[in-house]
Design goal:
The protein is α+β, with helices and mostly antiparallel strands and about 375 residues long. About 65% of the residues lie in helices and about 10% in strands. The protein is elongated and about 100 Å long.
Length: about 375
């Protein structure tokens, strides 16, 4: 068990609303204890700032009370977050997580401040029971207590702002790294694919000039679309399908009757935005490692639809299937790259699933549906 990475992941996601949490309970407990000690330290520092006292006896005298307040505040903040996660629909939480700018920061700051206020009140209630004194009524109207909580709330807002800025910067750097890696991989066009295509064109010129011209045109269209998408930060499903069509048409000219293909997607679905060149590796795998090794060839089917706000793209082939040695060896790098890009761009809201069919393999891409143009009401 990797304790340090697990605790680190729990810490990163502790102040983010998530419908489902995968971190183990002990990691979340350690994060809660750490948060309680952090809140306690802040409370002690605020007391030092306001009362100008730093004697050891004074610190030890107030340590137990501040530990109680810190534990209550931390527990209330985390509990209020869990309640919001339980009450809010998953679509709202996903939309909030995907937002950029001040809105998610404001929502989380409001939750934390409300949780801290509830925790402080709970702490005073516990002190009142322990010492038989109603500390809440006695101290709630004191200006010093109000000032102390106001400073404490401002520190919570400042710490939350710094944390969100760090998280946004880290996410942006990870996305840039993933996109840079994509461009490097896509820029390295497989030499054998390029040379084989040109060799086929050259051999067809003497025997079938019309077919050679069609292959060259398809290859040019494929390269033009691929290079254009490599330079873009966002693409559309329509552009992805056009690239896939050009590639399949080119491979169909090379393979002849051994390859058939079909593409099914409405015009509305084709307007969906998506990261560039996510679909192409799946289509290449279906041809090269699915249909290609099969003696009689096969059929590649691409379909796309929108279901409950999720864009689903399916690539089916009736090739050799996942159990074939060549198929198993050919999928690794491309699938890892796709999953890393989906994780960077969408988190848990996107996925790539590979499943066997009765004959062949199915690859399913799912991600939030983002229309290129506003949908009519």
């Amino acid at each position: 068990m990797h304790i340090r990475p697990t605790v680190k992941q729990a810490l990163r996601s502790s102040l983010v609303l998530k419908k489902r949490r995968e971190e183990p309970w002990w990691a979340r407990l350690l994060v809660a204890i750490g948060l309680a000690f952090a809140v306690t330290l802040v409370l002690m520092l605020v007391s030092v700032l306001l009362m100008a006292k730093a004697e050891l006896a004074w610190w030890t005298g107030l340590l137990s009370n501040n530990l109680l307040f810190g534990a209550c505040a931390a527990a209330s903040m985390l509990l209020l977050m869990r309640v919001c996660e339980w009450l809010l629909p998953a679509a709202w939480i996903d939309a909030l997580s995907a937002m950029q700018g001040w809105r998610p920061l404001a929502v989380m700051s409001a939750i934390l401040c409300a949780g801290a206020a509830l925790g402080v009140r709970a702490g005073y209630a516990v002190l009142g029971q322990v010492y038989a004194v109603n500390f809440w009524h006695k101290l709630a109207g004191a200006p010093m207590v109000q000032l102390k909580f106001a400073i404490f709330a401002l520190l919570i807002l400042a710490a939350n702002w710094v944390w969100w800025q760090f998280r946004a910067k880290e996410k942006a750097l990870a996305q840039q790294a993933a996109e840079s890696q994509l461009r490097m991989l896509q820029a390295q066009i497989e030499p054998h694919f390029l040379f084989n295509t040109l060799a086929n064109v050259q051999s067809l010129i003497a025997t079938d000039a019309a077919r050679a011209q069609l292959m060259l045109e398809s290859f040019t269209d494929y390269l033009r679309a691929s290079l254009g998408q490599m330079r873009a930060t966002d693409s559309s499903l329509g552009a992805e399908l056009e690239t896939a069509h050009n590639y399949l048409l080119l491979m169909q000219i090379r393979m002849g009757s051994r390859l058939a293909f079909s593409i099914d997607a409405s015009e509305a679905v084709r307007q969906a935005l998506m990261p560039p060149l996510l679909l192409q590796p799946l289509v290449e795998n279906a041809v090269q490692h699915g249909v290609g090794p099969r003696l009689e060839g096969g059929h590649v089917r691409i379909s796309a639809l929108v279901r409950h706000g999720v864009l689903e793209i399916v690539v089916d082939d009736d090739g050799v299937g996942l159990g074939h040695a060549r198929r198993s060896a050919g999928n690794g790098v491309a699938l890892i790259n796709i999953r890393a890009r989906l994780e960077t761009g969408f988190g848990e809201r996107a996925a790539l699933l590979i499943a066997p069919l009765a004959q062949g393999t199915r690859a399913t891409l799912s991600m939030p549906f983002r229309p290129a143009f506003p949908q009519p009401a």
